[in-house]
Amino acid sequence: MAILGTAFNAVGLIFLTHAVYSSSEHTAAFPHSPLPLDITIELIVSILVLSAGIVASSPQLKPIRWAKWGGKVAREGQRGEGRWTREGEEILSEGDGFAFLGLDNGIGGDGEGRRGFWDVRGKRKEYTAWVKKGGEN
Amino acid sequence: MAHANLLTPPSRIPPQTALQLSQKAPLVLSSAPTSSLPWPLSLLFSRETPETWAIHENLLLAALRTGDDAAARQILDRLTTRFGAGNERMIALKGLYDEALAKDDKELEKVFNDYEKVLKEDPTNVSVRKRRIAVLKSLGRTADAITALTVLVENSPTDAEAWAELSELYASSGAWGQAIFCLEEVLLVMPNAWSAHAQVATLHYLSSSTSVPALTLALRHFARAVELNDSYLRGYYGLKLVSQKLLPLLSESSGSKRNAEEDDVAPPKPQSVKKLEEIATAKLGEIVRQCSATKQGQSGYSQAEIEAARELLNRDGRTER
C-alpha cells in the first residue's frame, strides 16, 4: 500500500507540474486565447491521482468512537511499528492514556504506581530481595 | 513477559524487566546526546530528540531501583548539564537519587528536610511536593502523607494524579467514603477514564459487598467503564462479579419495596442485572478464547488477568472450550 501511494504521488506530481508549466507557457505565448482542453484534462487527472496517492499513503485510521478506540488499545496493547530511536528503543503505538493515574493495579498492588509519587525505596528493596532469592522468575 | 522498552516502560515492571532495562545503561551512556561544539554549531549538530530525555529519565529510574548508582549518577549529571540544576523536575530527580541512596530512616529524614528547604523558597514546585509526600509514605507516616496531600489538592484541585494517590492512601487505611470521594474528583477532571470508573466501582464493592445501594453503584460504574472501553477485561469481570452478588439480594429484598425506595440509589431491575451478567459472561469468554488463540505477548492483557477471568468463568461452570 505504501509503494502504491508513493507511485501515485510521484506520477500525480509529475503531471501536475507539467500541466502548470504548460498553462503558464500557453498564457505567455497566447495571452488572449482560452486554455486548450488537453491541459485542463491533465490538470484534473493529475489532481485526482495525487489525491488518491495521498489517501493511499496516509497512516491507518483510528477508531472514531471512544469505546472502540479504548477496546483496541486494551485488546492489542502497545506494539512496535518498526521505528526506532537513536538509542535503539522501539517507538510503540499509542497505549492507555489513563495509565498515569495508576488505577489498574489494585490498592497497594505491586504496580509502578503514579510517576510523581514513585516509591524508589520500596522498588529497590523489592529488587534486592529478588536478587537474594536467586534472581529467578 | 513485558517488553523492556525504555521509551514507554510497561505499566508493571517485575525485577527481571527492571534488570533488562538498567542493562541498557552502557549503551545509552556510550554516546553523548548533546554536541560538544561551541554554541551556534552545537544547535546544528545536536542529535538530541525529545525521546532522548524521556529515555534518560526512565533509565535513571531503572538504574536506581537496580542499585546501579554509578550509572544513575552519570545520567543525573547529563540531565543536570542539559536542563540546569534549578529546573523543577531536576530538583525532584536529584531528590529521588538522594532518597534511593539513603541508607536508613535518618538519612531519609535529611532528604525530607532538604525538600522542606526547597519548598520554603518555592512553594509552587509541585514535583518536589509530591516527592515530599512519597518520602512521608516511605517513612510509614501515612496520616501525615494524607494531610500533606489534602493541602496539595486544595491548592491544585485539577491534579488528577494527586487525587488518585490520595484515594489510594485513604483506601489503604480503610476510609472508603473518602477514597470514593477522591476518585469522583478524578472523574470530574477526566470523565472518560475507564480505569477511574472501574476503580470507583471496586471501592464501592469493597466498602460493603452485601448492601444493595453500594452494589448498585458498583454495577453502574462498572457498566460505565465497559461503555467507555468495549474490551475492558476488568470492567467485565467486575460487572459479572457484582451482578452475581446483587441478584440474590434483589430477589430477597423485592418484598420490602418501601425500604428500597427510601435509599437515594434506586436498585436496578433483576432482569436488567441478569442481562448485564449475560453480556459480561459472553464478552469474558470471547476475550479468554481470543487470548488463548493468539501468541504469547501479542495481546494487551496480562496473563494473570486472563487466568482470573477464566477462573471466574469456570466457577460459573459455563465455559466453552
UniProtKB/TrEMBL annotation, chain A:
InterPro entries: EMC_subunit, MMgT
Any one of the GO BP annotations: protein folding in endoplasmic reticulum
Transmembrane segments: 35-56
Upper classification of the organism: Eukaryota, Fungi, Dikarya, Ascomycota, Pezizomycotina
Protein name: Magnesium transporter
Compartment annotation: Endomembrane system
UniProt keyword Transmembrane helix, yes or no: yes
Lineage top rank: taxon: Eukaryota
Keywords from the UniProt entry: Membrane, Transmembrane, Transmembrane helix
Gene Ontology CC, one term: EMC complex
Protein topology in the membrane: Multi-pass membrane protein
Species: Karstenula rhodostoma CBS 690.94
Family (UniProt): Belongs to the membrane magnesium transporter (TC 1.A.67) family.
Primary residence: membrane
TrEMBL record, chain B:
Keywords for the protein's UniProt record, in alphabetical order: Endoplasmic reticulum, Membrane, Repeat, TPR repeat
Keyword Repeat: yes
TPR repeat start-end pairs: 160-193
Function summary: Part of the endoplasmic reticulum membrane protein complex (EMC) that enables the energy-independent insertion into endoplasmic reticulum membranes of newly synthesized membrane proteins.
Location within or outside the cell: Endoplasmic reticulum membrane
Family: Belongs to the EMC2 family.
Subunit composition and interactions: Component of the ER membrane protein complex (EMC).
Gene3D superfamilies: Tetratricopeptide repeat domain
Limits of the EMC2 TPR-like domain: 107-203
Topological type in the membrane: Peripheral membrane protein
The protein, known as: ER membrane protein complex subunit 2
InterPro entries assigned: EMC2-like, TPR-like_helical_dom_sf, TPR_EMC2, TPR_rpt
Domain of life: Eukaryota
GO cellular component, one term: EMC complex
